[in-house]
Design brief:
7-stranded mixed sheet, RNA-binding
Length: about 850
RNA sequence: GCCCGAGUGGCGGAAUGGUAGACGCAGGGGAUUCAAAAUCCCCCGCCUUCACGGGUGUGAGAGUUCGAAUCUCUCCUCGGGCACCA
C-alpha cells in the first residue's frame, strides 16, 4: 500500500493545472460565464486562517461551477495601500513600497500551495501605478460630473506628533505613540457626494435578492431615512442680530413637551459665542478633545452648558426655552441643533435631570398611563397612546398618526415644513498620508483647485521619502509638491492628500475584467464578465465597503466605465463568519496593552505564560483575528505538516460557513486522518476485482450522496456536505459490493470531494484510470429514480412525545396509516389513560395522537 | 450608547414547525500486536433503572401550536459595525 505524500502530490497537480491553463479565464460566449470573487487581501505578509477559509469557500464554488459547464472568472489581487506599510517604515526604516511588494511576494508564495483555482494572470495590486493611475483618471471624471467636492471636516489631531490620527490610533482620547490628548481639528477635505444617492441606494436594496437579509437591514439602517419636521425657534437677543435656530426633529408630535434647545459645539452659534464668552470657549474646547467617532460621542457622559440665551416656543411666544451647547449633538446630522423632550427620550431625560430642566409628558400609556419619573416613555411609534399635550389629532392615536398630523398642522400654521432626511453622510476620502493614491489636482493661486491633465497620469508617488518625522512626507517633499498649473502654467502646489483605501477597493472587481486596459475598464470585457455572480467576504464589510462599492459602480456607470446592468455589482453575496482566536496581552510600564502571538504563549499549570520570559499573560476571550491584536495563526504550518487538502477540508468541515469559527489545532489531525483513510480505501478498491453483494444499495447511497452534496455546495452548506461525504465514506468502506460498483462509487466520491480536496481527488482519479483532469471533468448527476424510497418510518407521538414508530409504504393512504397507528401497542396503552381527542397524520413525516 | 447577529452534550456542530444531538473531535471498552504506533469494531446528553423503560433537556422566563432548537415578546451573555483598521 502506497503512502499518500501530500507535498509532492499537491505540487504535481498544481503544475498540471498550470500547464493545462485550467483556470485562466477567457471570454467565450458559447458558455455561461460565472464570476466568483472573494474580497482581496491586505498584503500583511502572512496568510492566516481567515484567508484560508475565505478563499477555500470561493474555490469550492469556482471549481463546482467549472464542473457544471461554466466559463469561470476567479481572480486575485492585493488591497495594497494603507497605514500598516507606513507604520512599518516608521518602526524599522525601509520604504512602504518595498515592504508592500515584499509582503505580496511572500504571501503569494504562501497562497500558491493552497491549490486555489485562481487566475493569477489577472493579478494586480492597488499600489501599482497602472491601477491607481486609472483611479486618478476616474477621480477627474467624477470631478467633472460633480460627484466630488471639498468642504471642512474634523480630524483627530495629535498636537505632539503634529499629525492626523486614525480612529484606531486614538486610545482613550490619547495619541497611540505620543500619549498626548487628541484634539479635533478642522481641515478642508475631499468628499464623494454619496448622499445624493441615499434614496437610490436605499431603494435598490430591495433588488438584492441574493444578499443576506441582515446585511441589507444594516445598510438600510445606515442610510437611515427619516421623515421629520424642520422649523426654527426664534432666538431672543442673539449675537450679531442672529434671530433663529433651525431644528430638525423626527418627533414633532412631542413639540409641546420641549424643555430645552441643544446645539452642537461646532454649531455656528456656539462658535460665535466662544469668541467673547470664556466659559463657552472652555466648554467647546473640552468637547473638541473628544474623539471624532460616533461611538465616542455616544458613550461619553452627556454634558451641556447653558449659553444664557433663550428661544421662544413657536406655539406659545410667552414660553421661553434655554439654549444649551451639548456634547452629544452631531453637526453632521440634521441642522446640528435639536429640541429636547425629556419625557420621551432617555438621553434628554438624563440631561434634564442633570441640569434641573422640566419634564413635560405629551402622552402616556393608553391604559394606566403614569407620568414619567426616572425612565423616559418611548413606546413603538405604532402603539396607540393617550395624548395629554397633543395638538391637531385625537386623544388616542399612534405616534405615527401624531407625527403626520403634527407636520401637516405645523405646515398649515407656517411653522416649518416636513422634510425627509438621511443619516448617510458624504464620503470623506482625503487622507493626510503618503501610502495611498495621490489625489490628482493642483492648487494654483490664480486658477484655484484644478485637476491635472489626464495625459500626465499617473501622478506617481515619489520614492525618495523618509519616515523619520511624523506627518505626511508629501507635504515636505521639495520637488514633488512644487509643480506648474495645468491651466495657466504658473507655479502651483500639488495636492498632498491621498485617497482613502476604500476607494481602491470600490472598483477592483471591475478592473479584474480587464486588468491591462488603458482605460479604467474595457466595456466589452466589463459587459461580458460583470456582474460578480458570487461575492464572498467577511461580515465586517457589511456596511462601508459594500455601500461604497455600490455607489462607485453607479458613479462609474455615469462616467461610462461600466454598463448600466453593473450598478449593483454583486449579484449574490455571502458573508462568511470570522476566524477567531483568544488574545494574549501583557502591559507595558505605562499600563498600555502589549499583544503576543499564540505561538509565543505556553500553557502551564498556573496558566498562560510567555514562552521566552515566563511572564504571565492575560487571556482575553476569542475575537476576530487581527494583526493589531496578534491573535493570528499561521496556516503555513498546517500545509507543511499535512498538506493543503487537509487545511482546506478542515476549514470547511468544522463550522457552518456564515458563523464564526474558533481556530483549534485538534481538527487538523482529524482531517488528515480522514483523507489518509480515503486514499487507503482508493488504493484497496483500485487493486480489487470480482463481484460481491449489495451493488444496488451502494449505488443508491451514491446517488443520494451526489444529491445531498450538490445541494450542500450550492447553498453554502459546506460543513453539511462534508458530513454527507463522511457518511458515504463509511458506507463505501463497509460495503460488500463488487469491484465495479466500488470503483464507480470511489470515482464519484473523488469527484464530489474535488472542489474541496482537489489534489487528492486528482490522484484518485488517475489511480482509478480516469482520463484527463478531474478539475475539467463534468459534475456527476444524481439519478432521480435512485432517490425515491419505497417505505418510510413514521414516528408516533402521544401528546407531542415520541412513543413508538411504524414503517409503512411511502404512499400509504392516511386512513390506513391511522388504522395501523391505533393498533400500535404504545398507542393502545396510552388510550387506556384517556379518550382520543385528535389524530394527526402528516404523510411521510409524523403521527401525533392527542389524548 | 445606537444598529446587526449568535447562544444546542466535555468540544465543533446537525436538524428552519414534525423522532433533538447527524457527522466529526475528545473520552471509555474491545480486536490486532511480543509491545507500541497505525488501523478496525462497539459504547457515549443528563438523572433514574439489573434490564425493558421512565423523567428531563437546545442561554433564562413567558406565549402561540396537536407539536417549538426553529415562530412571538421580555431579559442575560458573547461577537460584528459605528463613517481615518482593512
Amino acid at each position: 500500500m502506497s503512502r499518500y505524500d501530500a507535498t509532492s502530490v499537491e505540487k504535481k497537480w498544481q503544475d498540471a493545472w498550470e500547464t493545462a491553463g485550467t483556470f485562466a479565464a477567457k471570454r467565450d460566449v458559447s458558455k455561461p460565464k460565472y464570476y466568483v470573487l472573494e474580497m482581496f487581501p491586505y498584503p500583511s505578509g502572512r496568510i492566516h486562517m481567515g484567508h484560508v477559509r475565505n478563499y477555500t469557500m470561493g474555490d469550492v464554488i469556482a471549481r463546482y461551477k467549472l464542473a457544471t459547464g461554466h466559463n469561470v472568472l476567479h481572480p486575485m489581487g492585493w488591497d495594497a495601500f494603507g497605514m500598516p506599510a507606513e507604520n512599518a517604515a516608521m518602526a524599522s526604516g525601509g520604504h512602504p513600497k518595498d515592504w508592500t511588494y515584499q509582503n505580496i511576494a511572500d504571501m503569494k508564495a504562501q497562497m500558491k500551495p493552497m491549490g486555489w483555482s485562481l487566475d493569477w494572470t489577472r493579478e494586480f495590486a492597488t499600489c501599482d501605478p497602472e491601477y491607481y493611475g486609472q483611479q486618478q483618471s476616474m477621480f477627474i471624471d467624477f470631478l467633472e460630473k460633480g460627484l466630488v467636492y471639498r468642504k471642512n471636516a474634523v480630524v483627530n489631531w495629535d498636537p505632539v506628533d503634529m499629525t492626523v490620527l486614525a480612529n484606531e490610533q486614538v486610545i482613550d482620547g490619547k495619541g497611540w505613540r505620543s500619549g498626548a490628548p487628541v484634539e479635533r481639528r478642522e481641515l478642508t477635505q475631499w468628499f464623494f457626494k454619496i448622499s445624493d444617492y441615499s434614496e437610490e441606494l436605499l431603494e435598490a436594496i430591495d433588488s438584492l435578492d441574493n444578499w443576506p437579509a441582515r446585511v441589507k437591514l444594516m445598510q438600510s439602517n445606515w442610510i437611515g431615512k427619516s421623515r421629520g419636521l424642520q422649523f426654527a425657534f426664534s432666538l431672543i437677543d442673539g449675537p450679531d442680530g442672529q434671530d433663529r435656530i433651525e431644528v430638525y426633529t423626527t418627533r414633532p408630535d412631542t413639540l409641546l413637551g420641549a424643555s430645552f434647545i441643544g446645539i452642537s459645539p461646532d454649531h455656528p452659534l456656539a462658535r460665535r459665542l466662544e469668541i467673547e464668552n470664556p466659559d463657552v470657549a472652555a466648554f467647546n474646547d473640552e468637547c473638541r478633545r473628544m474623539g471624532t467617532s460616533e461611538e465616542d460621542l455616544e458613550k461619553a457622559e452627556k454634558r451641556g452648558l447653558d449659553t444664557g440665551l433663550r428661544v421662544r416656543h413657536p406655539f406659545d411666544t410667552a414660553w421661553e426655552l434655554p439654549v444649551y451647547i451639548a456634547n452629544f449633538i452631531l453637526m453632521d446630522y440634521g441642522t446640528g441643533a435639536i429640541f429636547g423632550c425629556p419625557a420621551h427620550d432617555q438621553r434628554d431625560l438624563d440631561f434634564a435631570r442633570k441640569y434641573g430642566l422640566p419634564v413635560i409628558d405629551t402622552f402616556v400609556a393608553a391604559e394606566n398611563g403614569a407620568p414619567v419619573e426616572t425612565e423616559a416613555f418611548v413606546p413603538p411609534k405604532t402603539d396607540v397612546v393617550k395624548w395629554v399635550r397633543g395638538f391637531a389629532w385625537d386623544e388616542n392615536a399612534t405616534g405615527e398618526q401624531a407625527i403626520d398630523a403634527a407636520i401637516a398642522f405645523c405646515e398649515s400654521k407656517g411653522v416649518g415644513f416636513g422634510v425627509t432626511k438621511y443619516r448617510l453622510r458624504d464620503w470623506g476620502l482625503s487622507r493626510q498620508r503618503y501610502w495611498g493614491c495621490p489625489i490628482p489636482v493642483v492648487h494654483c493661486e490664480a486658477c484655484g483647485v484644478v485637476p491635472v491633465k489626464k495625459e500626465s497620469l499617473p501622478i506617481r508617488l515619489p520614492d525618495d521619502v523618509t519616515f523619520d518625522k511624523p506627518g505626511n512626507p508629501l507635504d515636505r517633499h521639495p520637488t514633488w509638491r512644487n509643480c506648474t498649473c495645468p491651466v495657466c502654467g504658473n507655479p502651483a502646489l500639488r495636492e498632498t492628500d491621498t485617497m482613502d483605501t476604500f476607494v481602491d477597493s470600490s472598483w477592483y472587481y471591475a478592473r479584474f475584467t480587464a486588468p491591462d486596459a488603458e482605460t479604467p475598464t474595457s466595456l466589452p470585457d466589463a459587459d461580458y464578465w460583470m456582474n460578480v455572480d458570487q461575492y464572498i467576504g467577511g461580515i465586517e464589510h457589511a456596511i462601508l465597503h459594500l455601500l461604497y462599492s455600490r455607489f462607485f459602480a453607479r458613479a462609474m456607470h455615469i462616467c461610462g466605465h461600466l454598463p448600466e446592468k453593473a450598478i449593483e455589482p454583486f449579484d449574490a453575496l455571502f458573508t462568511q463568519g470570522m476566524v477567531t482566536h483568544e488574545i494574549y496581552v501583557t502591559r507595558d510600564e505605562n499600563d498600555r496593552p502589549v499583544y503576543h502571538l499564540p505561538e509565543h504563549v505556553e500553557w502551564t499549570e498556573s496558566g498562560a505564560r510567555l514562552g521566552a520570559t515566563g511572564q504571565p499573560v492575560e487571556v482575553i476571550p476569542s475575537a476576530k483575528m487581527s494583526k493589531s491584536k496578534k491573535n493570528v495563526v499561521d496556516p503555513v504550518n498546517i500545509i507543511r505538516d499535512y498538506g493543503a487538502d487537509t487545511a482546506r477540508w478542515f476549514v470547511l468541515s468544522d463550522s457552518p460557513p456564515e458563523r464564526d469559527v474558533e481556530w483549534t489545532a485538534s481538527g487538523a489531525e482529524a482531517a488528515f486522518k480522514h483523507l489518509s483513510r480515503i486514499w487507503r480505501l482508493a488504493t484497496d478498491i483500485a487493486a480489487a476485482d470480482g463481484s460481491g453483494q449489495g451493488d444496488a444499495d451502494l449505488l443508491r447511497a451514491m446517488h443520494k450522496t451526489i444529491h445531498d452534496v450538490t445541494l450542500g455546495v450550492e447553498s453554502f452548506g459546506f460543513n453539511a456536505a462534508i458530513a454527507k461525504l463522511y457518511a458515504f465514506t463509511n458506507t463505501l468502506a463497509k460495503s460488500t459490493a463488487g469491484a465495479a460498483a466500488k470503483r464507480q462509487a470511489m470515482v464519484t466520491l473523488a469527484q464530489l470531494m474535488a472542489p474541496m480536496t482537489p489534489h487528492l481527488s486528482e490522484e484518485i482519479w488517475a489511480l482509478l484510470g480516469q482520463k484527463g483532469l478531474i478539475a475539467e471533468a463534468s459534475w456527476p448527476a444524481a439519478d432521480p429514480a435512485q432517490l425515491v424510497e419505497d417505505s418510510v418510518t413514521l414516528p408516533i407521538q402521544v401528546n407531542g412525545k415520541r412513543r413508538s414508530e411504524i414503517t409503512v409504504a411511502k404512499d400509504m393512504p392516511k386512513e390506513e396509516v391511522e388504522k395501523l397507528v391505533l393498533e400500535d401497542d404504545a398507542v393502545k396503552r396510552a388510550l387506556e389513560q384517556g379518550a382520543l381527542k385528535k389524530l394527526i397524520v402528516v404523510p411521510g413525516r409524523i403521527v401525533n395522537v392527542v389524548i
